[in-house]
Write a structure and sequence with these properties.
The chain is about 35% helix and about 20% strand. Helix 1 packs antiparallel against helix 12 and helix 10 crosses helix 12. It is built from twelve helices and 15 strands. The chain is elongated, with a radius of gyration of 23 Å. The protein is α+β, with helices and mostly antiparallel strands.
Length: about 425
């Protein structure tokens, strides 16, 4: 590293970073309640010398965009973007979301979900990894540049976005407002792996019809639960075939890049009545380079084919609906300048060879690449295995390494010097 790069890296305040993350965890920013935390992040961006763009997102207008998807109805949503630097070089976007999934059963946590706890070298709390940790890293990377008085030829922007967990409303709004760039780092938890590709994900609903009857006359009805096995086997077979066919070199070390998960199933209206229907809701992985329309058609055909093997379902076929969050797959070349700059910066900080591979989950990278036409990668501290789970946490060592890497990447990508 150069003397300037070393001075910026040395200016990063690790205690302040943990404090900022703790502040963000304290906001219960789930179920569409994101306005208050967005206002807080806007103040943080102003404090580190960034020019902020804070606006009320016109949700009805945004709903008309073909890339829009959401599961939560919001009365309000704020867009927050901070910018620092000049216009004589490339623009680098650091994108992190403030919304989190609900805490779930509180008794399964060993800490309070919305009160940060620091122990065993980790920060615990909902959003610690996904992605309040990454967003805090971005804020403190830019803060270090400000402390050192760095002047950028290009510019760095921090996009603090709402609605990522249910489809990407905030990132889409930022793109529509004109906040695009020459490269973007989406700060999802990757364990410091640099990911130039992400799988897609679609939400589906399958309704298996039955025939209602009094429970005392069960045999006069048709129990949809008895048909579940046929449909579930069809989904597992489809999953196997798709993962064998949709191979990608960046997912070579991923056991199941494109899973089909049934996360919710329900049916019936009365305990002593044969259910009229059974409903399955789930997540459908989409391959990099695959059309979402083609992926939908393949699932619909698999269910229709399976139904033909059953006399009842042949006459009363299951229905497939597509609803809720939609994440298209996305990818950029592994030798893109953004990938190489970030990878080299990480190696300079850690002294280790950078791991480069795809991520099997959907993220806002897809909107930046496909809608914003901005090359993007996913990179951040933490393990996605802890996200959405009790005792979500992030290693402090990864927070530090990620912040230093982001600071170094900004210096090199935005061309601080010739």
């Amino acid at each position: 590293m150069t003397e300037l790069e070393q001075s910026v890296v040395d200016a990063i305040d690790l205690d302040g970073l943990v404090e900022t993350l703790s502040e963000l965890i304290a906001f219960e920013s789930c179920d569409g309640r994101e306005v208050e935390i967005q206002q807080h992040v806007a103040r943080l961006l102003e404090e580190i010398g960034m020019e902020t763009d804070v606006w009320e997102i016109d949700i009805p207008a945004l709903e008309r965009d073909p890339f829009y998807s959401a599961e939560i109805e919001r009365a309000r949503a704020l867009g927050v973007v901070g910018t620092r630097g000049g216009d004589r070089g490339p623009t680098l976007i650091l994108n992190g979301h403030v919304d989190v999934v609900p805490a779930g059963q509180i008794e399964r946590w060993t800490t309070e979900p919305f009160r940060a706890a620091v122990r065993d070298g980790r920060v615990y709390g909902r959003g610690a990894a996904d992605t309040k940790g990454g967003l805090s890293c971005a804020i403190h990377a830019v803060r270090a540049l400000t402390i050192c008085g760095v002047e950028l030829h290009g510019s760095v922007t921090i996009q603090s976005v709402a609605g990522e967990e249910d489809g990407g409303l905030g990132t889409l709004a930022a793109i529509v407002r004109g906040h695009t760039g020459d490269g973007a780092i989406v700060l999802e938890p990757t364990q410091l792996i640099v990911a130039p590709a992400q799988a897609g994900a679609l939400s589906f609903r399958i309704t298996i019809p039955g025939k209602a009857a009094h429970g005392a006359l069960r045999t006069e009805g048709v129990d949809p639960l008895e048909k579940f096995g046929l449909i579930f086997d069809a989904l597992r077979g489809l999953e196997r075939r798709r993962n064998e066919r949709l191979r990608h070199p960046l997912f070579a070390d991923t056991e199941l890049p494109y899973p089909i998960c049934v996360g919710r199933f329900y049916g019936g209206v009365w305990a002593s009545t044969v259910a009229e229907a059974m409903v399955l809701q789930g997540r459908y992985g989409v391959g990099v380079g695959e059309s979402c329309d083609d992926a939908r058609e393949e699932l619909e055909n698999a269910i229709a084919t399976a139904a033909k093997r059953d006399p009842w379902l042949r006459e009363q076929p299951p229905t497939v609906e597509w609803w809720g969050a939609r994440f298209e797959p996305a990818g950029i070349p592994a030798d893109d300048p953004l990938v190489t700059t970030l990878s080299d910066s990480l190696a300079a900080i850690t002294g280790q060879t950078t791991r480069i591979q795809g991520m099997p989950y959907g993220a806002d990278m897809n909107l930046l690449v496909n809608r914003g036409k901005t090359p993007a990668v996913i990179f951040g501290p933490g393990d996605v295995r802890t996200a959405h789970a009790p005792d979500e946490s992030v290693p402090i060592a990864e927070l530090e390494a990620a912040t230093k890497t982001l600071a170094l990447t900004i210096l090199r990508f935005c061309r601080t010097y010739g």
